[in-house]
Write a structure and sequence with these properties.
Protein charybde, alpha/beta, cytoplasm, 5-stranded mixed sheet, elongated, about 160 residues
């Protein structure tokens, strides 16, 4: 049996340098979600959850800047986490009932949960209507309040804590 040197047989035109000059999977920059992208994701998830629940026939009115403010606070709460905002699972509930839940980055380990609590708006424009018109409008319309609460729940404890 003869032992052939592998390097002389298979070293055809390759140098000892790295063949790929781009970043490796460990060095590649990971995109961090922006405030606008997270607000759009919140809107998509809420629309999907509304369609899959008993709210499908109701009209849900959300204030214009609510999702942008919620996404800004979500990103701020996630800053100190090991995986940042990519490690967050966002849970949205309306009046105490869970409406939507999603991971910002499904390929990243979940390190914390962000709970977004929305409420019905009791001081809306329908309070100015006569009672017979309230019965017509309120049955199919849910108005979300511009105020919300948001809290972070850590899913791990570091050695320093």
């Amino acid at each position: 049996m003869e032992i052939l040197p592998v390097t002389s047989q298979f070293n055809v035109g390759f140098s000892s340098e790295k063949a790929w000059n781009g970043p490796t999977w460990r060095e590649a920059p990971v995109p961090v979600p922006t405030e606008a992208a997270l607000a759009q994701r919140l809107e998509r998830e809420l629309r999907a959850a509304k369609g899959a629940s008993e709210l499908a026939t109701a009209e849900v009115l959300v204030p214009a800047e609510l999702l942008a403010r919620a996404s800004r606070q979500t990103l701020a709460l996630a800053e100190g986490e090991p995986c940042g905002s990519r490690g967050a699972a966002v849970i949205v509930d309306v009046a105490g009932r869970r409406l939507a839940a999603f991971k910002i980055d499904p390929s990243t380990l979940t390190t914390h949960e962000i709970h977004l609590h929305l409420e019905h708006d009791s001081t809306n424009w329908t309070s100015l209507l006569p009672q017979f018109l309230k019965n017509l409008t309120r049955s199919g319309t849910i108005i979300i309040s511009p105020q919300f609460t948001i809290e972070k729940k850590k899913l791990f404890r570091s050695q320093a804590e």
